[in-house]
Design goal:
Elements (H helix, E strand, L loop, with lengths): L1 H22 L26 E19 L10 E21 L2 E18 L6 E17 L4 E18 L2 E19 L4 E12 L2 E4 L3 E19 L21 E19 L9 E20 L2 E18 L11 E17 L4 E18 L2 E21 L2 E12 L2 E4 L3 E19 L10
Antiparallel strand pairs: 1-2, 1-9, 2-3, 3-4, 4-5, 5-6, 6-7, 7-9, 8-9, 10-11, 10-18, 11-12, 12-13, 13-14, 14-15, 15-16, 16-18, 17-18
């Protein structure tokens, strides 16, 4: 009897369970929608197509030559080499088409430039200056999330001024340009890019006591730019305002940076009169280093201290007369560069423009064939930049520094003074912030 009762209870329980299950709604097997979590979320579709305008700035360097020619040409024509370098500042306009991840476009730019040098070996002093430069290029890139690496090439033209004391000529010369770069979106309408171009222009000329041919070869340009797109590249996520007491830049951080440095150096025999002729030549080269820093934010003002040190290869060579001490050729190389600086910035959403300044130090190698000297020299630096948060603990920055180091020297047949002036550093960096408060609310 007991077994029959237990069996009956079990049957009733099973029937009740089935009836309860029948009353439940069917399981929803549709995928659950999750709200986009931020700027680097892969869910938005990034569209690079459309018109854009922008501006760019950077550094250009070149090797030029002036050759005295005649008819018939001499067996060994006199020639002088000039190592040129200088800044660029210009504007750009372009249009992109996109098919899948492939981006093709056309871009035109024009820039004011000051890529110049003076050759001290010329009897009357000769010089060459590229004071304007433009290109019209095609671009082919690959859309990779917010980034687009690309290759580019096309036509170029430049305005070249060349001459010597009392003689000058200005001419526009055509040529071509090839290069590449990477562009990155940091808002629906704005992007930043880093670009390298190699430009070759046709030869120019002027007439002194005899005709002179000016060869302008391989202008190497490295520059940074910002573009504004008239069409949105993606749909921006809805941002939630952060609490008033929120401090997003409070942090201890480490990072890495890389860029380009350029300078002008001078060699001269020490203790000569002030009107002594320096052998001046331009230097340029890459930098790669590490960064440590600390930020403290009070309201929207950000105060901090930052130090960096890195490998550098800012070098140049030249030759001159006995007054410069460079008859056999001389060189200068800034092989290491470091700074310790204060920073003052303004927190503007996820961006922070800032000014910076402090002390600097660098290792300067200089000498002539068979004579080398290496010294550490102190100095100072000032500059500024913009830093932008692109993830809860990561930021990207673009920075310009102007560095001046003390003079160095070495001894050849006589003591030679080496003047290292105005090192211009343009670099980009990425920082990881250890104590940065969560900034998900901003995204």
């Amino acid at each position: 009897m007991r077994k029959v009762l237990l069996a009956g209870v079990a049957i009733v329980a099973l029937m009740s369970n089935e009836a309860f299950a029948t009353d439940l709604p069917a399981a929803d097997k549709r995928p659950v929608h999750r709200t986009s979590t931020g700027f680097l979320d892969p869910s938005p579709a990034y569209n690079w197509a459309g018109f854009y305008v922008g501006f760019n700035a950077g550094w250009g360097s070149s090797n030029a030559a002036q050759v005295f020619t005649s008819t018939p040409p001499p067996s060994t024509p006199a020639s002088w080499s000039l190592s040129q370098g200088g800044t660029l500042l210009g504007g750009v306009v372009g249009y992109n088409w996109q098919a899948g991840n492939i981006v093709a476009g056309i871009e035109g730019d024009w820039a004011w430039t000051l890529i110049n040098d003076t050759g001290s070996g010329c009897v009357n002093g000769c010089y060459t200056t590229v004071n304007s430069l433009g290109t019209l290029r095609g671009r082919v890139g690959y859309s990779w999330s917010i980034f687009m690496p690309y290759l580019t090439g096309g036509f170029a033209w430049g305005h070249i001024e060349a001459g010597q004391q009392g003689v000058a000529n200005n001419s526009w010369q055509p040529g071509f340009a090839v290069g590449g770069g990477i562009e990155a979106l940091f808002s629906p309408n704005w992007s930043v890019k880093a670009e390298y171009l190699m430009v070759r222009l046709n030869d120019s000329s002027y007439t002194a006591t005899t005709p002179v041919t000016v060869t302008e070869r391989d202008i190497r340009i490295i520059r940074l730019g910002v573009n504004y797109r008239f069409d949105k590249a993606y749909k921006a996520p809805v941002l939630t305002a952060a609490p008033a007491k929120f401090r997003q830049w409070d942090s201890v951080y480490v990072g890495a940076n890389g860029g380009w440095g350029a300078s002008a150096a001078g060699h001269a025999i020490a203790n000569f009169p002030a009107d002594d002729r320096f052998n001046k030549f331009n230097q340029s080269g890459a930098l790669l280093g590490i960064t440590f820093g600390l930020n403290r934010q009070i309201s929207q003002m950000v105060y901090g201290v930052e130090t960096d040190w890195g490998w550098a290869n800012i070098n140049g060579t030249g030759s001159g007369d006995a007054f410069s001490g460079c008859q056999a050729g001389c060189y200068t190389n800034v092989s290491s560069l470091g700074t310790l600086r204060g920073r003052v910035g303004y927190a503007w959403g996820t961006y922070m423009p800032y000014l910076t300044g402090g002390i600097a130090w660098g290792r300067i190698k200089s000498g002539q064939p068979g004579i080398d000297s290496s010294t550490w020299e102190p100095g100072f630096t000032v500059g500024g930049g913009v830093e932008a948060l692109f993830a809860p603990n990561w930021s990207l920055k673009t920075e310009y520094l102007w560095v001046r180091l003390n003079d160095s020297g070495y001894t050849a047949t006589a003591p030679v003074m080496v003047v290292q002036r105005d090192i211009n550093v343009l670099r980009m960096g990425v920082n990881y912030h250890f104590d940065l408060r969560p900034i998900a609310a901003l995204y």
